[in-house]
Design a protein that fits this description.
The protein has a single domain, classed as minor pseudopilin epsh domain (minor pseudopilin epsh fold). The strands form two sheets. A four-stranded antiparallel beta sheet has the order 3-2-1-5, covered by helices on one side. Strand 6 and strand 7 form a beta hairpin. The longest helix has 25 residues. The termini are far apart. With 160 residues, the protein is of the alpha+beta class. The model has no long low-confidence stretch (mean pLDDT 86). The protein contains two helices and eight strands; from the N terminus they run ααββββββββ.
């Protein structure tokens, strides 16, 4: 006696295909814009680098206090750039520790620094500030937050 067997089918049912396409569609709508928008990451990275540049300028000022020419180290902040220099006009820029190029950070698109100012660190690491300096890194990107770091007037301590 022979049993009736069903033919074996390979593939997906219509319900499985619709469910899979629905999940892929939802992921594309929700996740893709977040992955494509890098400006939040760029503004946070620039903020961290700007803090690091100010700390580095202070360390260079302290490190060279024993060796001539004992120049103060300046930090020059504009709306779109932050630089470390040996003079207020920034004709003698600090060298980038990762390479020989000048130590200049350009803000990514949509990021604005404020206030535009210039200050220096002396050989003891003290800045030429009379009050605490609050450096704002503002992003025009929707959903990105504005960040601020501070430079203390007596010690030059840089913190969030």
């Amino acid at each position: 006696m022979r049993l009736h067997s069903r033919p074996v089918t390979i593939g997906f049912t219509l319900v499985e295909l619709v469910a899979t396409l629905t999940v892929i569609g939802i992921l594309a709508v929700v996740a893709a814009p977040r992955m494509a928008g890098r400006s939040g990451f760029e503004s946070r990275g620039f903020y961290d680098q700007a803090q690091g540049l100010v700390r580095y300028a202070q360390k260079i000022a302290i490190a060279q206090r024993q060796s001539p020419p004992k120049l103060p180290v300046f930090v020059v902040i504009t709306a779109t750039q932050i630089r470390g220099c040996y003079d207020a006009a920034c004709t003698l820029p600090l060298a980038d520790p990762g390479g020989g190029s000048p130590l200049i950070l350009n803000a990514p698109g949509g990021v604005i620094l404020s206030p535009a100012t210039t200050f220096s660190f002396d050989g003891s690491g003290a800045p030429s500030l009379v009050a605490q300096l609050a450096v704002s890194v503002a992003s025009a990107d929707v959903g990105d937050i504005n960040r601020t770091f501070f430079v203390e007037p007596r010690t030059g301590y840089v913190h969030e």
